[in-house]
Design a protein that fits this description.
Blueprint: H1 3-12, E1 14-21, H2 26-37, E2 42-48, E3 53-58, H3 65-74, E4 78-81, E5 88-95, H4 100-111, E6 116-122, E7 127-132, H5 139-149, E8 152-154, H6 161-197, H7 204-219, H8 221-232, H9 238-255, H10 265-289, H11 291-299, E9 303-308, E10 311-316, E11 325-328, E12 338-342, E13 345-348, H12 350-353, E14 359-361, E15 366-367, E16 372-373, E17 378-382, H13 390-402, H14 407-436, H15 438-448, H16 459-473, H17 476-496, E18 499-501, H18 505-510, E19 515-519, H19 520-524, E20 530-536, H20 542-553, H21 559-570, E21 579-584, E22 588-593, E23 596-601, H22 603-608, H23 617-625, E24 629-635, E25 638-646, H24 653-662, E26 666-670, H25 675-685, E27 689-691, H26 699-709, E28 713-717, H27 723-728, E29 731-735, E30 748-750, H28 756-791, H29 797-816
Parallel strand pairs: 19-26, 19-28, 26-27, 28-29, 29-30
Antiparallel strand pairs: 1-3, 1-4, 2-3, 5-7, 5-8, 6-7, 9-10, 11-17, 12-15, 12-17, 13-14, 13-16, 18-30, 20-25, 21-22, 22-23, 23-24, 24-25
Helix pairs in contact: 4-5, 4-14, 6-7, 6-10, 7-9, 7-10, 8-9, 9-10, 9-16, 10-29, 13-17, 14-16, 14-17, 16-28, 16-29, 17-28, 17-29, 20-21, 28-29
Length: 830
């Protein structure tokens, strides 16, 4: 290897520091170090057990930071990048983009900056989402690149309020330009009619040339500036086509004094006017598409009443701090997320979960900011404020989804990158071919003889008409808006119904899902064990069995034990304190109550303590076949009975599984339960594929096995214990809990926590993707038929300009129809 090659390889090397956790000795550190060393692209690694850090030199072209973290996790430990190595995320609102090729140009220039790891510029939302290393590039550098490319960065202020105002301001500006242009164009057209059919107007052409100057040059100035910047950067855009389609005929108006060219100044004015009408209607339609975000922003309470030294005080919500005690009267909105410390009421939580019926809340229950208190007065302690609140998390997730891309969009983005240059070449070709072969083209015009075709014009005029028509009828915007607008509406619809889509690509992936793997505890089941059966034996009564079992389980932290204690309390059984309590891993617990030795646990615990339990073996097996956890109880060496506990299925579990199967999606259940219990639960739910006795760290392996068998695998879990498996699945779906919905491992979070939302998520994704495909079809169909027709002179430029505006608007309006789609499970309607 030459020294130059070595130098080039060294230039690629980057360093990263990983913070590690879970290591208990230096051997653990050695394990991590060996695993990282074996990773392709890693040139050097040192793991320090004392400071729990890994120092890695790696080639970012071969391996990413995420890959390094995944390697550590596969070794059995946790890792994250240290603060100085963490990429920051920035969202910039960009003004001045006129089509998707503008967005592509900005995206390309930002991506070329060293230190930028990911960038996505969305023309539909007019935002750039950038992940960057603050050690290598600053936010000001990103803004500078945008401005250098020819666009403006709009500063967004607290709670996205500025972004909202900017959208409204843009619509108002577009409306002013549209109406001003319409006034001038209407005047020009009226004068033309008078001049042609009523009376010969003196100095007609100078008059309309002056009038046309206003819509074409003054009102359309921003369009021309954008066009010039694009051409200067060698990436012509939609504005370039409009500029050429309006300025060229306007300029040719002057040449008409010397050349046999008809006057096109009226046409030029109408082209710019239709462009302005299209811009306004597109802005208005895009505003409708993004209504979900605006609705969410409007939902929040503006003020809060808090107690300060026992005195009630009204303050802006922005000034709330953690621990503040809020006073919430009937009819008022909950200002921020919190926990009830006094009072009881029912709350309208439809804005958060989509659930229309009020939900009862009492002391120690969590409440969500912006929900409405319906009845009693509440005192609520603030637990989350600002960007950490439920509502802020929802807005952030919806914006992340709207700012992401789906795989189908990548091809369209590549096409729009060279769409405009091809259109310009086609328009020039149309002019040259018309001038060269008039005997071929003119008979075509004569054959169709549309009302707007003017066969009697000189061939130079006809050639120019064909060239201009090709320019103004072409519409890359329709292609650029096809996906973003559908994602905007779809993600908003999901948020309104408790389905939060974090990543847009999940919309395309989940609709192709072959099998959904459900975690059992807390996902298929309620996650709260309940005592189902108490069986006594010998001299003991059922009350005795519950007394001894609950008394000893008071000292246990196991959920099964706590369910027994709650059952005893519900039956008003007084419990006794335990002496010599001890937990026996994998078997149960033991202790002394009233000088009597008490054992509760599985068969193995009884066998090891020489307690014969064969007399009730049949009862044990029967309970286990019913998906119940049966625990044997012994008092002073005598078998006393059985306590059975079960984590029951959620009410809608069987209905959801049935509907998924009818939709052609197979289902599986992953659980740590023994095979017999797992089979019983799966049978109740209607699940045919059972993956039992799976340890927590084995769930990832099970997902990998399913992925080898099926094309696309989705995983539904709680997002905490199941995070690695959710990450491994093609689509991770997390069941939300309370106000904690920012589950990083999940592509989709279901706020309500019920399984019916899985159906809603799939129906929403299918409906959204259908709209995307419809949008692309009409965009391709429009351009594929309109451009050839314009090339042959069959479409007048004015008609072409109107058609161009309509094509973009139709795509956006088609996307807004998603708001009307029913995504509820079909069994809701039975």
């Amino acid at each position: 290897m030459t020294s130059d090659n070595k130098t080039n390889e060294l230039d690629k090397i980057e360093k990263v520091t990983l913070k590690l956790s879970g290591m208990s000795c230096t051997n653990c550190a050695n394990t991590v170090e060996k695993a990282l060393h074996k990773t392709e692209g890693v040139s050097d690694v040192s793991v320090n057990y004392a400071v729990e850090k890994a120092y890695v030199d790696y080639d970012p072209t071969q391996v990413s930071k995420d890959d390094l973290i995944a390697t550590v996790k596969r070794s059995g430990y946790e890792a994250e990048t240290s603060e100085q190595d963490k990429d920051k995320n920035a969202t910039m609102k960009i003004a001045g983009m006129s089509c998707s090729s503008c967005a592509q140009r900005v995206e390309k220039n930002i991506a070329n900056l060293e230190g930028v790891s990911k960038v996505n510029v969305n023309y539909g939302t007019e935002k750039a989402n950038v992940s960057y290393n603050p050690q290598k590039v600053k936010l000001t550098d990103l803004k500078h690149v945008v401005e250098k490319t020819g666009y403006k960065v709009i500063e967004e202020q607290g709670d996205n309020q500025q972004g909202k105002d900017a959208d409204e301001e843009k619509m108002e500006t577009a409306a002013k330009k549209m109406w001003s242009s319409v006034v001038f164009a209407s005047t020009i057209m009226a004068l033309m009619m008078v001049h042609m059919f009523i009376i010969d107007i003196p100095y007609y052409f100078p008059i309309i040339s002056v009038l046309a100057f206003f819509p074409i040059v003054i009102i359309g100035w921003e369009t021309h500036v954008s066009s010039w910047r694009a051409v200067r950067n060698l990436s012509p855009n939609m504005d370039t086509l409009v500029t050429m389609g309006s300025i060229i005929p306007y300029g040719l108006n002057l040449l008409g004094f010397w050349l046999p060219i008809s006057s096109f100044v009226e046409m030029a004015a109408m082209i710019m006017t239709f462009h302005m009408v299209g811009r306004f209607l597109e802005a208005k339609a895009k505003g409708k598409a993004s209504q979900a975000i605006k609705k969410l922003l409007e939902m929040g309470a503006k003020t809060a009443h808090i107690l300060v030294d026992g005195v009630e005080k009204e303050i802006p919500v922005d000034e709330l701090q953690l621990g503040d005690v809020m006073v919430i009267r009937p009819g008022e909105k909950v200002p921020t997320d919190g926990i009830i410390i006094s009072g009881e009421s029912s709350l309208d939580e439809s804005m958060a979960t989509g659930e229309s019926l009020p939900v009862n809340r009492k002391v120690d229950d969590q409440v969500i900011g912006s929900t409405i208190n319906k009845q009693g007065m509440l005192h609520v302690k603030a637990t989350k404020v600002g960007k950490d609140t439920f509502l802020s998390q929802v807005i952030k997730m919806v914006e992340e989804c709207q700012g992401s891309k789906v795989p189908i969009q990548e091809f369209a983005d590549r096409v729009t990158g060279f769409f405009v240059p091809i259109v310009i070449l086609l328009s020039l070709s149309a002019f040259i071919l018309w001038m060269s072969f008039p005997d071929f083209f003119v008979p075509i015009l004569q054959y169709f003889n549309f009302p707007w075709t003017m066969v009697d014009l000189p061939i130079l005029s006809l050639s120019l008409l064909a060239m201009i028509a090709v320019l103004v009828i072409s519409c890359p915007c329709a292609l650029g808006l096809a996906t973003p607008t559908a994602i905007m509406v779809g993600s908003g619809k999901g948020a309104e119904n408790g389905v939060l889509i974090r990543r847009g690509e999940a919309i395309q992936t989940i609709m192709n899902t072959s099998i959904i793997a459900f975690d059992k505890t807390g996902t298929l089941t309620k996650g709260k064990p309940e005592v189902t059966d108490i069986l006594s034996y010998g001299e003991f009564s059922e009350k005795d069995v519950l007394y001894y079992a609950a008394s000893i389980e008071v000292s246990s932290e196991h959920p099964l034990g706590q369910s027994i204690v709650e059952q005893a309390k519900a039956k008003d059984i007084s419990l006794t304190s335990v002496e010599s309590f001890s937990s026996i891993t994998g078997m149960g617990v033991k202790g002394t109550i009233n000088d009597k030795s008490v054992l509760i646990g599985n068969r193995k615990l009884m066998t090891e303590n020489n307690i014969d339990h064969q007399a009730i073996a049949d009862s044990m097996e029967k309970l286990e076949h019913e998906a119940k956890t049966a625990m044997l109880l012994a008092v002073d060496g005598k078998l006393a009975g059985i306590v059975a506990v079960a984590d029951t299925l959620k009410d809608d579990a069987a209905l959801v599984i049935q509907e998924l199967e009818s939709m052609g999606i197979k289902t599986a259940m992953i659980t740590g339960d023994n095979q017999r219990t797992a089979n019983a639960i799966a049978k109740k739910a209607g699940i045919s594929r059972v993956l039992a006795e799976v340890l927590p760290d084995g769930k990832v392996d099970e997902i990998i096995r399913l992925q080898k068998e099926y094309d696309t695998v989705a995983m539904v879990g709680d997002g905490i214990n199941d995070a690695p498996a959710l990450k491994q699945a093609n689509v991770g779906i997390a069941i939300g809990t309370g106000t904690d919905i920012a589950i990083e491992a999940a592509d989709i979070t279901l706020v309500r926590g019920d399984l019916s939302s899985v159906i809603s998520a799939i129906k929403l994704s299918r409906a959204t993707f259908t709209k995307i495909k419809q949008n692309y079809f009409w965009a391709w169909f429009y351009n594929g038929t309109a451009i050839p027709a314009a090339f042959f002179g069959l479409i007048h430029p004015i008609v072409g300009a109107a058609a161009m505006a309509i094509s973009s608007i139709s795509v956006v309006l088609n996307s807004t129809q998603l708001r009307k789609v029913d995504i509820d499970p079909s069994y809701y309607r039975k």
